[in-house]
């Protein structure tokens, strides 16, 4: 199968009206300054943060430590509603739920909430669309609409935490335990908003959700400058590198950013991140039939990774409707795993969820947009 030539799109195509500012767009210190600028005592910001991050409350009338006549006004100014639920679709007996959100300007993004026996994970979007243009990805083919604000990103996470606490998934009330930046968009192309969101996740209550950095995964297709900045942050999140092939020739077409930073440079940056943080990084590898699933590519990948502190996460491709890209044969997948393991490289095959609910990133948003056009 011939892989088409792909052009990169780095810039947002149009200037759009920015979303309203939200408590989650600011650091704890900045929140208090914002409160004072609004004519409020600084401690009001801490009170609202407590309701938002600790109690997951979106009903200002329950904020009993704030005067009743001030609650709605303060909520409107500090926690404006940034995302509105369009629809939710579920599968896997209700343990997988995809939410489609509409933003203030009508843009659609997705998040996926997944309950396992030992954890609950939300996969969230950091951009509306994506400019990386990977040809097998529904989001990449849609192109980049715009970056999300830290508030818009954090709202997806808080909504997921609230759903868990309210017992909206089978099994009763639980706690959101893991956040992965693997939804729509390239997280490191929206660096500042993503890092503010990461701090909102990891800062202790009441300034954040108090979730361990070890439970947060930030993915990238290989923006080396972003990995280098992340290395200096001092927050030991899990870094996931979407490699998808061990050879530059194919990666130039599967992951077009490779023409700017090649595999050697990406792995060197990931190694530096691992050395600084002590955190093993993940190699994401979508297995695509007859494209990147050959045994010689598994052998080359094993040789590349055998002495590195990394783990390979093989992903059976979740095909998009009408696409020529499809998942590998089971026997090819098994041989790929066997060869990697022969090099002592840790490898798992991701549990595929959501195929019957447009599970691949961008599919639900694309379908909804087509319906409204």
UniProtKB/TrEMBL annotation:
Keyword Isomerase: no
Cofactor: [4Fe-4S] cluster
Keyword Hydrolase among UniProt keywords: no
Radical SAM core domain residues: 116-356
InterPro entries per UniProt: Aldolase_TIM, Methyltransferase_A, RNA_MTrfase_RlmN, rRNA_lsu_MTrfase_RlmN/Cfr, rSAM, rSAM_sf
GO-annotated molecular function: 4 iron, 4 sulfur cluster binding; metal ion binding; RNA methyltransferase activity
Entry keywords, A to Z: 4Fe-4S, Cytoplasm, Iron, Iron-sulfur, Metal-binding, Methyltransferase, rRNA processing, S-adenosyl-L-methionine, Transferase
GO BP term, example: rRNA base methylation
GO cellular component assignments: cytoplasm
Cellular localization per UniProt: Cytoplasm
Gene3D superfamilies: 1.10.150.530, Aldolase class I
Cited PANTHER family: 23S RRNA METHYLTRANSFERASE, RADICAL SAM CORE DOMAIN-CONTAINING PROTEIN
Name of the protein: Unannotated protein
